[in-house]
Amino acid sequence: MAFPTATRRVTLPAMIALLLALGVFVPPFSNGEWPLYARAIPIIAAGIVVLTLLTGSTQSHSRLRIPAWSAKFVTSLVFAGSGVLLLTATATGGRGTGFHLVAGVLGSALLLQLWLTEEVKQGWTLAGVLVLAAVVRIAALGTTPGYIGLDIWSHIPSFANAIMAEESLDAIAGDKYAISPLYHLSVISTALLADLSLRTALFLSIGIGMLVAPLIVYLIARQLLEPRWALFATTAYALADHVILWGIYLVPTSLGLLFFLGTLYALCCIMRESYTIGNTALFFAFLLAVVFTHQVSSFITAVVIGAAVLAQVALSIPRLYPARPTNLIWVFFGCVFLVAGLWTVTPYSGAGGSFTDTVLIFLADAHQTTTGIAIEYGVPEADYGLRPLDSAYQLVEATGLSVLLLAAGVGAIHSLHRKRADQPTLALVFASGAMGVFLLLPVLLGIRTFLPGRWFAFLFVPLAILGAVGVKRLDARTPRVALVFVLLFALVFPLSMAVSAPATVENPVVDDRPQYAFTGAELDAMETIAIEER
């Protein structure tokens, strides 16, 4: 196939991206000790360039579309399939391999109908996405005795229980969550108001809150895209493995992710509509909520706000972009001072000094960081994507992320064009780049201070939206290529995400992944041992 003629403004950023990727990442690509996603970057970059070149000139090919009634049919099928999944999980006592495969197929059907139907039924389709996402998470929580995850056993049975018993935060005075207690207070207040156990209160507060996350992503995407593509982005986000992880492994990261989404939505509103009273109040309310919930989430939020400031600076250069962006510099510095100030008074148990002092110590000693902070957080996803390829299953896991990166790369290059750039979209482009650097570069240097496993769910927000922009671009310029790519994306992404290690922590699809949930018999045994020791 001959490439269509492309304009310099489109191809130049693509070629620069390819050269940078090949120059920087060829060593990781050839070294089996580097993470799999790092070794795949040259291939992904080359794919982005090829797809960008294919969209270089307008095409006049007819698009494949199916009748509008099929949208309701597919969504009705998703409703029915979700109900069957929930009943099956209840009857079998958990989510098995068949559950994940069927959930992936339903996700594929949603993505395909969003691209193929003549008219998108906005509310109906969004309901289907939310129902499928909810069933995947509820089936895991409702069929798992106890809790899913490791450090949640410290947060709920230990910290939250101690706070309730003493009716004061003094019960965790030596821990960093004494300064960021919103997670624990949310669970405790739900338990007291509704007279429930802490476990049930956790599911009804944080668990239900996480079901709202895809809806917030839709609200963010609607500010940048029309309904079809905003729903496409929302579906991709809802099905992402690390998003599923924090919907069932309900720790402060989960609530921090939810408040991060609210902060990003309010920030996009400010960039779109400037500083109205409502937008500004909403932004600072969510920002304070993030800061008083989770330290890593607040740092990621500061990085994203900094990326929005970079977008402002770029748009302020007339030779680059003829736009007048919203001034966010004072918002960024306010966020940094708030985070830094709170961290200086945040205790860090077991390390001495403040949280800031501890982070600086870890940064100064990469070995101490790798062995210390990862263990302290008890991160079940610490190995995901961070170890060499050891099975075909790991390749399946990485393939889903790779196709999303392909789509997001095309969307990012499209969004960088002088005539199409706006501040919110450009901020997402810079945010995905900055978050990718924090996620990848420290790992390649052997530094785990930034807890890369915690960044994926946050990174999926800009990737999903930019991915929808990329698919929209392919659909508008090269429908035949778009057909092939969307088929690949719809068939690969949901299935690979559904069976990946982060999405199945309570019952991994393959035996070589650790299980981060206990059976009823194991919980009874532990309780028996505890009673005998007393």
Structural account:
The chain is mostly helical and 534 residues long. The protein has helices spanning 8-30, 36-39, 41-54, 69-92, 97-116, 122-143, 152-166, 182-194, 198-211, 213-222, 227-239, 241-248, 252-273, 277-291, 295-315, 329-344, 355-364, 366-377, 392-415, 423-444, 456-477, 479-499, 520-533. The chain is 71% helix and 0% strand. It contains 23 helices and no strands.
Q: How many β-strands, per DSSP?
A: 0
- Provide the β-strand percentage band: under 5%
Q: Which residue ranges are poorly predicted, with pLDDT under 50 across at least 5 consecutive positions?
A: 1-10, 367-389
Largest sheet composition: none
Counting helices, strands and paired strands, the structural category is mainly alpha
Distance between the termini: 75 Å
Average residue pLDDT: 84
Count of helical regions: 23
Helix-residue proportion: over 70%
Specify Rg, calculated over alpha carbons.
23 Å
Give the tags:
534 residues, mainly alpha, 23 helices, disordered N terminus
Write the layout of secondary structure elements.
Elements: H1 8-30, H2 36-39, H3 41-54, H4 69-92, H5 97-116, H6 122-143, H7 152-166, H8 182-194, H9 198-211, H10 213-222, H11 227-239, H12 241-248, H13 252-273, H14 277-291, H15 295-315, H16 329-344, H17 355-364, H18 366-377, H19 392-415, H20 423-444, H21 456-477, H22 479-499, H23 520-533
Helix pairs in contact: 1-3, 3-19, 4-5, 4-6, 5-6, 5-11, 5-22, 6-11, 7-8, 8-9, 10-11, 10-13, 11-21, 12-21, 13-14, 13-15, 15-16, 15-20, 17-18, 19-21, 19-22, 20-21, 21-22
